[in-house]
């Protein structure tokens, strides 16, 4: 569970841009307040078309700021103080227009002026139509903002507000945004000791692997990477030094996490071995069990003689390889088991076979909607027994798992 005091005494400025996701920023404010943060709100004119300053102010516990030339604000707080008083600034939703203004250094309203005047860490949660997100102008602005040190959370893939539109562009969930703020605010000394995984090295695998058949074709497993990314974020929020090794997924690098992107299982194994030593390793990736023995260098053409014969070889089992290591075996090795029947029995068998300490087992039969979804129902299988956790958000599964890991490792 999240630490209810993790943001105690921290001041966060939330800038709300004008998009349909603005309603979710109210939940971001609520979650920040719940964790003890003092929240101030700045809203663009467009944001006020979606939610009212009254609603945002009521949740923040202080009037929302909307105008650059507001006599009341300029006398008591002023835009420079708004920018500087905060320990961190969060822009949610960050529209394409707001990103363009930030990248260009514009200051023609309160939100853009505050963003230009701040010298604090800035986290933005983009939200826009997938075509706008993929537009060359937005890509340029994104590259500029990354170069300027702006941190990102999301956007995620999924359905858009516009009927029939899907792709990358949905704002990250409030829980993801809050989890991304925590690392930005980590106090160098005090924060490091207060984190339950402070000083620990955590390695996480996520996503599918792609095994090439030829330069244009591959075989893969279904996996969105969401659960593994959530675990990496939760471990980083708990103060760990996290390396995330991920196969191809449509998710942004979690802030504060060393993210290594790979394609195939052999590459994933090499990246995992390169990330050792680690105190804990969590294997959430859906690794392809087989790869084509000899991927063709040229595209395989359709021939009149029939379909090509592909010979497969088994991929290395990354979890088993690491769990059976004689040297540099992490103290706690956690595997996942994706099953469609006899979930617990198969998972128990996997625990023994692969030599890991814990298995997080889930039922991925299509009816559950777990594959690609945001929720998960899991069983934690240890040598001591089985705990079944009721259905919850993948972020909450990640937080619970991280809390269990921290408890198992004990205090430093
Ligand atoms: N795993 C791995 N490397 C592989 C295959 C699996 O590291 N080549 C890890 C996964 O990350 C997961 C666990 O092993 O933590 C179990 O994965 P799963 O796909 O459920 O098991 P399989 O090994 O494929 O077993 P089976 O085919 O019997 O279901």
SSE topology sketch:
Elements: E1 11-16, H1 22-34, E2 38-43, H2 53-60, H3 71-76, H4 78-85, E3 88-94, H5 96-104, H6 110-117, E4 122-126, H7 130-134, H8 136-147, E5 151-152, E6 156-159, E7 166-170, H9 174-184, H10 190-194, E8 201-206, E9 210-214, E10 217-220, H11 226-237, E11 241-246, E12 258-261, H12 265-274, E13 280-283, E14 290-292, E15 312-314, H13 318-323, E16 332-339, H14 343-354, E17 358-363, E18 375-382, E19 385-393, H15 394-409
Parallel strand pairs: 1-2, 1-3, 3-4, 4-5, 8-11, 8-13, 11-12, 13-16, 16-17
Antiparallel strand pairs: 6-7, 9-10, 14-15, 17-18, 18-19
Helix pairs in contact: 1-2, 1-9, 4-6, 5-8, 9-11, 11-15
The structure holds cytidine-5'-triphosphate.
Cytidine-5'-triphosphate binds at residues 205, 265, 283, 285, 287, 289, 315, 317-319, 335-338, 350.
What tags apply to this protein structure?
2 domains, Rossmann fold, single chain, alpha/beta, 8-stranded mixed sheet, binds cytidine-5'-triphosphate, globular, 412 residues
